[in-house]
Amino acid sequence: MVDQFPQALSIAGSDSGGGAGMQADLKTIQERHVFATTVLVAITAQNTLGVKDAFPLPTKIIDEQFAALDEDLQIKACKTGMLADVTRVKAVVANLKKYDFGPLTLDPVMIAKGGAPLLSEDAVIVVRDELLPLATIVTPNLPEAEKLTGQTINTTDDMQMAAKKLQNMGVQNVIIKGGHFENDNQSSDFVLLSNGRSFWLSAPRVNTANTHGTGDTLSACITAELAKGNSVEQAIKISKQFVDATIRDGIKVGHGHGPLNHWA
Ligand code: PLP
Q1: Best residue among 111, 118, 223 to mutate for probing ligand 1, ranked by most atoms within 8 Å of CB
Q2: Over the stretch 60-96, which tens digit does the pLDDT of each residue have?
Q3: What does residue 147 show for φ and ψ, rounded to 5 degrees?
Q4: What ipTM, to 2 d.p.?
Q5: Which CATH superfamily includes the segment(s) 7-145+209-248?
Q6: 264 Cβ contact partners less than 8 Å away, ≥ 6 residues apart
Q7: Alpha carbons 126 and 91: distance in angstroms, whole number
Q8: pLDDT (0 to 100) of residue 172
Q9: Does ligand 1 have an atom closer than 6 angstroms to the CB of 18?
């Protein structure tokens, strides 16, 4: 088969405010010169001030989106973002088992920065037991890593232990985003690769309200880089640099947690 232009897939929820979710994924994948395709799982009514409402889509249309993509496109890497609830997680798991869309980057989106739940409590176990083993890489922040492992994370040693635990649960590679440590003037992410190698990725902490969609942008960038054929290690390093640049020069949009600067 003739090689096509690289194509990636975002399986996620829509953010009407444009800063996070599916919208952040589309922009990021496009910026990395990869063709973006989508399976929309839920719709949120949202702006920079917060999430007003969320509507998970019927599984029939979720299944049909996957089937339509499989029929025609050559998707080389995929990611999951907001998956809403047990029913939607199970639908996505079934489709990812049915079709081959390349390596899966699992962004275990749980709670928006404003506090709105984007994944129901009872769905965390399903993500852990059924989706995690399908993933090539998982990209939790500290609260998400705590939920998935059942372990409290207060120190960098705790982060390393949690990464090992996640790997033991069946995911090949792990990046735990340390951006949430208090009183830290660095944001340090811990990376544990499938071959056992590990390293820290650090960047000076930026004092900004423009961090909406940071996690989505990182996981979408990793997905795009994997779709181009980069290794997991290359994809992670490129994506960390990309996200740091988008955080540094925030743009003025809305009145709350503003979006990233995708032109940085
Ligand atoms: N809305 C949707 C649909 C998302 O997928 C996400 C994050 O993944 C968010 C909102 C939350 O973004 P943040 O926590 O960066 O504000």
Answers
A1: 118
A2: 999 999 999 999 999 999 999 999 999 999 999 999 9
A3: -65, -45
A4: 0.94
A5: Ribokinase (3.40.1190.20)
A6: 245, 246, 248, 249
A7: 11
A8: 98
A9: no
**Contact assessment for residue 13 and residue 82, using Cβ atoms and an 8 Å cutoff:** yes
Would you say how long the chain is, in residues? 264
Return contacts of 233-236, CB within 8 angstroms, 24+ apart.
Answer: 233/191, 233/193, 233/197, 236/137, 236/173, 236/175, 236/191, 236/201
Question: Torsions phi, psi of 25, nearest 5?
Answer: -65, -45
256 C-alpha to ligand 1 centroid (Å)? 14
Give the distance (Å) from ligand 1 centre to CA of residue 2: 37
Residue with token string 């492992």: 149
Query: What b/e sequence results for 105-128 when a residue is b if at least 16 CB atoms lie within 10 Å of its CB, and e otherwise?
Result: bbbbbbebbeeeebbbeebbebbb
CA of 197 to the centre of ligand 1 (A): 30
- Work out the average pLDDT over 9-22: 98
pLDDT of 203: 84
- 111 in ligand 1 pocket by Cβ < 6 Å? no
User: Atom 5, ligand 1: which residue's CA is nearest?
Assistant: 21
**C-alpha to C-alpha distances, 86 to 65, 80, 107, 137, nearest whole angstrom:** 19, 14, 16, 21
Domain spans in the chain, listed from the N-terminal domain onward: 7-145+209-248
Among the atoms of ligand 1, which is closest to the Cα of residue 54?
A: 3
Residue 213 CB–ligand 1 contact under 6 Å: yes
Question: What does the block give as tokens for 185?
Answer: 């003037």
Nearest CA to ligand 1 atom 2: 21
